[in-house]
Request: fold
Amino acid sequence: MTGPPSDPAVLPRWRMWPLYAAGFTTAFGAHGIAANLGSATGDLRGSLLYLGVLLALYDGAEVVLKPVFGSIADRIGARPVLLGGLVAFALASAVFVVVDDPGWLWLARLGQGAGASAFSPAASALVARMNPKARQGRAFGSYGFYKSIGYTLGPLLGGALVWVGGLTLLFAVMAVLAVAVAVWAGCAVPAVPPLPRTRQTVVDLARRLSEGAFLRPTAALAAATAALSVGVGFLPVSGAAAGLGPVVTGAAVSILAACAALVQPGAGRALDVGRLRAGPGVTAGLVITGAGLGCAMLPGLAGVLAAAVGIGIGTGLITPLAFAALATSTPAERMGQTMGAAELGRELGDAGGPLLVAGVAAAATLTAGYAVLAVLIAASPAVLTRRRPDQNAVAGPD
Reply:
């Protein structure tokens, strides 16, 4: 990969802040609204099917469109895609505010998902392009930190806004936030022009995305996201079954998200200064994550809290290290395409983890569901780090 568009000593680090804000925006938009859709009036409250469709629209749009917008970012530049996605997100939010009709929620959520599909991989590509290899860990650690803060605060702040002014106020705040980030990014983020690219066929793309340098970090990211989704979705169920109240189970989920957020910057810094190699770091993160899911099998408060801490720390290790590995092993002219495809892997993990645990729980017990996912994730380093003699390790260069 070639270096960033300008010398880091000349490029102030504050120019990264709008990218971190964009990461916060997509996370806050995903969880802040999704956690409060059930508060809408009319048919929505009485229709679990419609609610499920609304929840799926945002993620569904991201699964389909993130690789597409990642490739477009390589073709025309990541900055225009970032700004366009934020504006589209704001417009989709504003439509619901103006119409103020729950029947339009499907269109608003679809539009928000499409906008996030553009600015999320573009922001990741800019994080990689604007930082040299020696700072990739710190850059992605900080980006992941603020994204995790968005996931953590989304349900809480979203619930407060809905309590004050309903879904209309929440969508209005999302529109204002997206516009503010777009203006900030337009002023602070430098133009990072697209680089010349050699012609790439579908076979070339398939070959590149099937290489270990892409598959191993992406699979680790998918495993981490699957564990996070299961922790957020099912730990409250385990807590309720053990007689714990919603305040306690909500606090456990907050602990999980806080651990994931706090670990990421430190892991990134350790990678950059050489105290941690990405391959062993990702392996450790997968093992810790699997152990955290194993703790979820224990009864009572101790099991829930241990699971929250383990899953949070493990996924906090994996995320910045895997993204830094992708950034350092990807040609700069294909950065958007790689980040979009990697984000697709994360979305599949986000959906696949809960589906796997729920399916096993339906056939057996929730404890068995935790056990299956824990074994798969804890055993995955043996598969993810297996390589031919001519391949690099999961983390790229040591």
Notes: The first helix runs from residue 17 to 34. The mean pLDDT is 83. Residues 237 and 257 are 17 Å apart (CA to CA). The two ends are 15 Å apart (CA to CA).
